[in-house]
Amino acid sequence: MSIFELGSTETVITDADMETYLDRILKKLLKPGMKSILLLPPDHTRLYSGAGQITAMLYKMLSSDYAVDVMPALGTHVPMDESEIHMMFGT
């Protein structure tokens, strides 16, 4: 099942576009009665995937209405230190 599809080698997604797309996705996924959300982004070794920025956007969009936790998927990597967390997810 596809929730959202967009892209090509020439597609550029602005921050404003990303927020709009994330809002559309959340409207499909969020259910009445939900109280908490767990975001599972990759760690800093996938910095250029944009997952850190997307996670930060989702946190900002959701944290006023839900208890939001972020748990980077480390796999076999060591836990991120404070500077790596800021590099990946911002402040």
List keywords for this structure.
91 residues, globular, two-stranded parallel sheet, 3 helices, 38% helix, mainly alpha
Structural commentary:
By secondary structure, the protein is mainly alpha-helical. 38% of the residues lie in helices and 9% in strands. It contains three helices and two strands; from the N terminus they run αβαβα. Strands 1-2 form a two-stranded parallel ribbon. Helix 2 links the parallel strand 1 (36-39) and strand 2 (67-70). The model has no long low-confidence stretch (mean pLDDT 90).
Task: Give the helix/strand class.
Answer: mainly alpha
Strand neighbour order, sheet with most strands: 1-2
Distance between the termini: 33 Å
Mean pLDDT, nearest integer?
Answer: 90
| Number of DSSP strand runs | 2
The parts where pLDDT drops under 50 for at least 5 residues are none
Helix content: 25-40%
Largest sheet: 2 strands, parallel
Principal-axes shape call:
globular
Q: Helix and strand string, N-terminal first?
A: HEHEH
% residues in beta strands:
5-15%
| DSSP helical segment count | 3
Output the radius of gyration.
14 Å
